[in-house]
Specification:
It contains two helices and ten strands. The chain is mainly beta and 141 residues long. Bound molecules: zinc ion (2 copies).
Length: 141
């Protein structure tokens, strides 16, 4: 795996239209990709990216996200925070959150350091993604 650059905190990010802005104050617990069909639907893309962060590590500094709540397959209630203007998904919070939430890291202004450390449901990945996952990374130059 290629070495990701070390970010300087706080990091900033926001939704696609710019109405909602946030500050991420400390490093995340982890970054992962999920290839399940629900994450595909949610992201409108090939897979979902998530970044585990502490509840108090992320502060909204502009705008107020809207919330859509759904029940997960494991029976937990999940709050999905999004921009009410442009619809960008920003954060997921389980009701039994244990102090954590997940940030959708594609909304960060600087995504150069966003590298998933784990892949969930790789067997459900699109065929071309499977091919990429199975291709060994080139050695660092
Ligand atoms: Zn927006
Ligand atoms: Zn998923």
């Amino acid at each position: 795996m290629t070495e990701a650059p070390s970010p300087i905190f706080p990091q900033h990010g926001g939704c696609q239209c710019g109405a909602i802005r946030y500050e991420l104050r400390v490093p995340p617990f982890g970054i992962w990709a999920c290839h399940c069909s629900l994450c595909r639907k949610q992201s409108g893309s090939a897979f979902g990216l998530s970044m585990g962060v502490a509840l108090d590590a992320l502060v909204f500094v502009q705008g107020e996200p809207a919330v859509w709540t759904r029940e997960t397959e494991s029976g937990h209630m999940l709050d999905c925070l999004f921009c009410p203007t442009c619809g960008s998904r920003l954060v997921h919070r389980r009701h039994a959150h244990e102090g954590r939430q997940t940030l959708k890291p594609g909304t960060l202004d600087d995504t150069s350091w966003v590298v998933p450390g784990r892949h969930f449901f790789p067997e459900s990945a699109l065929d071309w993604v499977k091919t990429l996952l199975e291709t060994p990374s080139p050695p660092p130059s």
